[in-house]
TrEMBL record, chain A:
Heterodimer of an alpha and a beta chain. This is Pyruvate dehydrogenase E1 component subunit alpha. It comes from the Bacteria. Gene3D superfamilies: 3.40.50.970. Residues 48-338 form the Dehydrogenase E1 component domain. Its cofactor is thiamine diphosphate. It comes from Neobacillus paridis. The pyruvate dehydrogenase complex catalyzes the overall conversion of pyruvate to acetyl-CoA and CO(2). It contains multiple copies of three enzymatic components: pyruvate dehydrogenase (E1), dihydrolipoamide acetyltransferase (E2) and lipoamide dehydrogenase (E3).
Automatic annotation (TrEMBL), chain B:
Its cofactor is thiamine diphosphate. InterPro entries: THDP-binding (IPR029061), Transketo_C/PFOR_II (IPR009014), Transketolase-like_Pyr-bd (IPR005475), Transketolase_C (IPR033248). This is Alpha-ketoacid dehydrogenase subunit beta. It comes from the Bacteria. CDD domains: TPP_PYR_E1-PDHc-beta_like (cd07036). The lineage of its organism: Bacteria, Bacillati, Bacillota, Bacilli, Bacillales. Keywords: Oxidoreductase, Thiamine pyrophosphate. Residues 4-179 form the Transketolase-like pyrimidine-binding domain. The keyword Oxidoreductase applies. SMART domains: Transket_pyr (SM00861). It holds the Pfam family Transketolase_C.
């Protein structure tokens, strides 16, 4: 039908403005020199080390879960570039508001590994974030962290801090009202926030095409009046560059940004009975595994003489050793008691909890 | 001392704490230049600036989330939900998030947030402006829920709420905002949360109530006195946690009680009060404890609200059943 109002025009223009930023291709070659972030050799090695370590942590976590030694766990393999390269662009004073799959960012931001295991096991000490580690524990409600990030960011701005709040959700999370409210609030207040969408193609089983008519999720930034970018989420350099720039803008008073990372989770949604073969094909899995962030980054670093099998094995051994130690430490945590939980509801226990404390103290001392 | 309406007492409390504590922030829909749709924040932006008193975009979940984030950065947020019927939009940020933060973080983080909001019926609003939803809040672990019934109480309770280090839902009955004036000290004073107030002493019957129903109950008590009954009226002031001590002391004294609430009957605050009395003082009772409430419908279209809302005659009717049991 011939349009008299041209209402589609703006949408068509917007849709064309969100190409995928890629710096490092699947073969480990730099394809966009201009966008290459200024990382030292040591930093590049450190980022690789973290990705290898986290892949091992994921493998061990899955097997510990199968052995019944871990509880709730959302696998991370495939998303290392999206998760770790974005965290790598942060400073310690930046604040992370994670979703439930974002435990690796917390660990690299300072959460001790044994606490991540305690979180998985459903022990409240897993969430007792050490002083000076600027993170929340993983959010379970999809999107709630987005509105909270706007508040943390506004608080930083009011306190005159040169830091940012960064929050993560997935493709499904962009359908929540809180997703838009968070971006819109931060935009209206020009608050230093970074909103990351790890688009791993499936919200449990629902493909991204069923979430929205939007061609990209990055373009949702336009409605909030903030910068948005789509990046190759399997490319650590692109994720780092986009996050680093968003951070620069934020601390320069230019407000929040949205980053969509195109990625894939190789494993199930969580270890609690999800079977991805019900909604994904082996072909699609293969297609994405070819884009693997570790494979391409390894090639890139090997070509530069910055990585080797020996180095990789060293990291793997270290990871395994530290995981073993962390599990031991988690095992040593005191048995969780209802009385402990009763006593952390309020600063001061009201009458009903005081009475219930007594009741459970008697039960638990038997 | 000054004569103040409840809304003036609330503004006065906000001004007091904005002055006292540089970390307090007042924000919400239209609270800035406009001073709030009920003028609770009248003049505060002018006095304290846009950094401390500011308008937000129109989104209640966003306001809740913003409060949480600001609290994480060391602020003491005092957000306003424009009408409490809009709280459904903020249920996750209040009941799923801020109420749980201390618990979830094993005590590491806390949420010194006071969510203020007008609620309650009787002024012919459109839908979702008048609902008494305090029961939802009272059932949520991790929240304190305060409902003042007088200007004096409103100021003292609001100051305590703001200074509390846990989230407080502070519900202001909109019919009481300008219903009457009373003496309110200009200097600061606090009324502890979780403490009921015996608004009228009596020996034959305890009426346990809160909010606008305090006044219907007091009127009923005056009428009943003419018929020879001595009626005590206990104003809960805080509905979570309840002041069971005061409730039980009153019931043990009178041996008879009714509980009056404006909200619908099912699973509400009144039911909880009845349960507490049963658990703690059943042997002091001379009669069953009855409730006066609204019926279990959605808040009515405004032409029906005068009958739907409990009034002093309803209170008298139920009181007499218990008095003559």
């Amino acid at each position: 039908m011939a349009s008299k109002t041209d209402a589609r025009k703006a949408l068509e223009i917007v849709e064309e403005q969100f190409p995928t930023l890629q710096i490092l291709n699947e073969d480990g070659e730099i394809v966009n020199k201009a966008a290459m972030p200024a990382l030292t050799d040591e930093q590049l090695q450190e980022l690789m080390r973290r990705m290898v370590y986290t892949r091992i942590l994921d493998q061990r976590s899955i097997s510990l879960n199968r052995q019944g030694r871990l509880g709730f766990y959302a696998p991370t393999a495939g998303q290392e570039a999206s998760q770790l390269a974005s965290q790598f662009a942060l400073e310690k004073e930046d604040f992370i508001l994670p979703g439930y799959r974002d435990v690796p960012q917390l660990i690299w931001h300072g959460l001790p590994l044994y606490q991540a295991f305690l979180f998985s096991r459903g022990h409240f000490q897993g969430n007792q974030i050490p002083d000076g580690v600027n993170v929340l524990s993983p959010q379970i409600i999809i999107g709630a962290q987005y509105v909270q990030a706007a508040g943390v960011a506004l608080g930083m701005k009011k306190n005159g801090k040169k830091s940012v709040a960064i929050t993560y959700t997935g493709d499904g999370g962009t359908s929540q009202g809180d997703f838009y409210e968070g971006m819109n609030f931060a935009g209206a207040f020009k608050a230093p926030a970074i909103f990351v969408v790890q688009n791993n193609r499936f919200a449990i089983s629902t493909p991204v095409a069923k979430q929205s008519a939007a061609k990209t999720l990055a373009q949702k930034a336009v409605a909030a009046g903030i910068p948005g970018i789509q990046v190759d989420g399997m490319d650590p350099l692109a994720v780092y560059a986009a996050t680093h720039e968003a951070r620069e803008r934020a601390i320069n008073g230019e407000g929040p940004s949205l980053i969509e990372t195109l990625t894939y989770r190789y494993g199930p949604h969580t270890m609690s009975g999800d079977d991805p073969t019900r909604y994904r094909t082996a072909e699609l899995d293969n297609e994405w595994e070819k884009k693997d962030p570790l494979v391409r980054f390894r090639k890139f670093l090997e070509n530069k003489g910055l990585w080797s099998e020996a180095k990789e094995n060293e990291v793997i051994e270290q990871a395994k050793e530290e995981i073993k130690e962390a599990i031991k430490k988690a095992d040593a945590a005191p048995k969780q008691k209802v009385t402990d939980l009763i006593s952390i509801m309020f600063e001061e226990m009201p009458y009903n909890l005081k009475e219930q404390y007594e009741i459970y103290q008697a039960k638990e001392s038997k | 001392m000054a004569q103040m309406t409840m809304i003036q007492a609330i503004t006065d409390a906000l001004r007091t704490e904005l002055k006292n504590d540089p970390n307090t922030l007042v924000f919400g829909e239209d609270v800035g230049v406009n001073g709030g749709v009920f003028r609770a924040t009248e003049g505060l932006q002018k006095e304290f600036g846009e950094e401390r008193v500011f308008d937000t975009p129109l989104a209640e979940s966003g306001i809740g989330g913003l409060s949480i984030g600001l609290a994480l950065q060391g602020f003491r947020p005092i957000p306003e939900i424009q009408f409490f019927g809009f709280v459904f939009e903020a249920m996750d940020s209040i009941a799923g998030q801020m109420s749980r933060m201390r618990y979830r973080s094993g005590g590491h983080y806390h949420m010194p947030i006071t969510v203020r909001s007008p609620f309650g019926g009787g002024v012919h609003t459109p839908e979702l402006h008048s609902d008494s939803l305090e029961g939802l809040m009272a059932q949520t672990p991790g929240l304190k829920v305060v409902v003042p019934s007088t200007p004096y109480d409103a100021k003292g309770l609001l100051l305590s709420a703001i200074r509390d280090n846990d989230p407080v839902i502070f519900l202001e009955h909109l019919k009481l905002y300008r219903a009457f004036r009373e003496e309110v000290p200009e200097e600061e004073y606090t009324i502890p949360l979780g403490k009921a107030d015996v608004k009228r002493e009596g020996s034959d019957l305890s009426i346990i109530t809160y909010g606008a129903m305090v006044h219907e109950s007091l009127k009923a008590a005056t009428e009943l006195e003419k018929e020879g009954y001595s009626v005590e009226v206990v104003d809960l002031r805080t509905i979570s946690p309840l002041d069971v001590e005061t409730i039980i002391a009153s019931v043990e004294k009178t041996g008879r009680a009714i509980v009056v609430q404006e909200a619908q009957k099912q699973a509400g605050v009144a039911a909880n009060v009845v349960a507490e009395i049963n658990e703690r003082a059943i042997l002091s009772l001379e009669a069953p404890v009855l409730r006066v409430t609204a019926p279990d419908t959605v808040y009515p279209f405004s032409q029906a609200e005068s009958v739907w809302l409990p009034n002093y005659k309803d209170v008298m009717e139920t009181a007499k059943k218990v008095l003559t049991f």
